[in-house]
Amino acid sequence: MTAVISVKDVTFSYGGPVVLEDVNLDVEDGEFLGVVGPNAGGKSTLLRLMLGLLEPTTGSIEVGRRDPSEGSRAIGYVPQYPPFVRDFPITVEQTVLLGRLGTARAMGGYSRRDRDIADRVMTETEISNIQGRRLNTLSGGQLQRVLLARALASEPKILMLDEPTANIDVRVESDIFELLRKLNQRATIIVVSHDIGFISQYVERVACVNRTLICHATLAIDGKVIQELYGGDVHMVEHSHG
Amino acid sequence: MEFIHSLTQHAFLQHALLAGLLASIGCGVMGSYVVVKRIGFLAGGIAHAVLGGMGAAFFFGAEPMFGALIAAIMVALLIGWVSLGWRQQEDTLIGAMWAVGMATGILFISQTPGYQVDLMTYLFGNILLVTSQDLWLMMTLDILLLLLVLLYYRQFLAVAFDEEFARLRGVPVALFYMLLLCLVAVSVVLLIRIVGLVLVIALLTLPAAIALQYVHTVGRMMIVATILGALFCVLGLAVSYQPDLPAGATIILVAGMAYLLSTLLTSLRQRYKARVITTR
């Protein structure tokens, strides 16, 4: 196995307290990695560092053996909070096509191939029937699928998702994770979540982030690990949504 | 009717009409970006600070429109730099540039020897004074603007919609943001002859804002806003002609009334839709 992302001795702060300290992580090719931890523990910051949107204070990061600012083009990214205004005049199809930027030709319109790929990922994420709709008419689950399709449109080798199911109901959450399981056959997936119990069903390895980072195989996660990570007792309630 | 008759008779009126149509391309295309990117204040800053360049051009005996163009580009780059680097103080710095640009222009104009410039012409425009040279400049700027927007429509859309995603896809966001502001500056210059630099922001935003109430994509917004801009210019010119009213101010009032009417209609339409859904 080869590391597609390599984080070495990374420390980061936004100018105040240290958010991440001496973090080391190798993400293997084809892996489905969960990043968990308490709120403000540094999960999203770690993702943004790997994307090259932030620079580490010390340490280094490589994405595909390159600096993240260059290597991040191989990453499809689904943000937790879409930074755009929801009433922006753009359709679902146009949003997905924007994912072709950086892959398609630099000038002029979209090619036949760009449109074919956009059609394919819209079918895969089950949004073909809403491709003509504006973003402000979509539900939380539909918007999440659109953002996933936009990320997939660049045909990424790595897919990064930051709390992809934070604002949607449990049934849609399972649907999205089932889809991610399928996508894992062709892409390395890194998914940030606050719900360690839920993502354990899907990921192979869990990176626990709370200023520092410790990796565990999913099967090795027990009450002690959770208590150390969240700094308090966590009750596990076994239940099903059958 | 008298307006149509005069139109066939007088070259200055034909120039005015053509200027209105050429300016509406800039106002429709770049106005759409200004509205969706919500940079009306930045565009206002560019428009007002342009007086500095026009005043300097007068003082040194150069063509004021070229002075305006150079000043507009310089101010756009400066405002873009401030906006990218000092987002926290953006409002204050743009407000300062807005005022300092105007003050510089007024000082230059007041010191221009032997010739009293009609300041009102530049502040509030005079479409009836458009020359053939102005028309050629406007046409050149329109072609440049359309060409760049056609070539880089996707990049401009990405930067206006989601800067972070554009950056991740390798789009040089700062470069396209600066270019976008420069093209807004070009549109401001196109519109100064028509409505003057004080009123320019209204013609840049109102047609696009009306268009946004009816269409769902930026491309369609540009087309509808261009048509509306042309309509407002022609209508304003026609209404102002017989009673000899200032054309620029009349054009803005026509646009303002159309915006109010459209907003009212849109709001009524939405309420009616909501009532139909709840009674089902």
Helicity level of chain B: over 70%
Under the CATH scheme, which class of the domain at 14-201 in chain B? Mainly Alpha
Radius of gyration of chain B: 19 Å
User: Most extensive interface: pair and counts?
Assistant: A-B, 31 and 29 residues
Fourth-level CATH superfamily of the domain at 14-201 in chain B = ABC transporter involved in vitamin B12 uptake, BtuC
CATH topology of the domain at 14-201 in chain B: ABC transporter involved in vitamin B12 uptake, BtuC
Q: What does this protein look like?
A:
The complex is a heterodimer of chains A (242) and B (280). Chain A is of the alpha/beta class and 242 residues long. Chain A has a single domain (3-230), classed as P-loop containing nucleotide triphosphate hydrolases (Rossmann fold), CATH 3.40.50. Helix content of chain A is 29%, strand content 25%. Chain A is built from 8 helices and 9 strands. Chain A has helices at residues 43-50, 68-71, 92-98, 112-124, 140-152, 170-183, 196-199, 223-230; strands spanning 3-13, 18-28, 32-36, 58-63, 75-78, 158-162, 188-193, 205-210, 212-217. Chain A has a 6-stranded mixed beta sheet, sandwiched between helices. In chain A, strands 2-1-4 form a 3-stranded antiparallel beta sheet. In chain A, strand 8 (205-210) and strand 9 (212-217) form a beta hairpin. In chain A, helix 3 runs parallel beside helix 5 (140-152) and helix 4 (112-124) packs across helix 5. The N and C termini of chain A lie far apart (37 Å). The model of chain A has no long low-confidence stretch (mean pLDDT 86). With 280 residues, chain B is mainly alpha-helical. Chain B has a domain at 14-201: ABC transporter involved in vitamin B12 uptake, BtuC (Orthogonal Bundle), CATH 1.10.3470. Chain B is 84% helix and 0% strand. Chain B contains 12 helices and no strands. Chain B has helices at 2-9, 11-37, 40-59, 64-85, 90-110, 119-124, 132-151, 153-161, 163-168, 173-212, 218-241, 247-279. In chain B, helix 2 (11-37) runs parallel beside helix 7, helix 2 crosses helix 10 and helix 3 runs antiparallel to helix 4 (64-85). Chain B is globular. Chains A and B meet through helix 3 of A and helix 8, helix 9 and helix 11 of B.
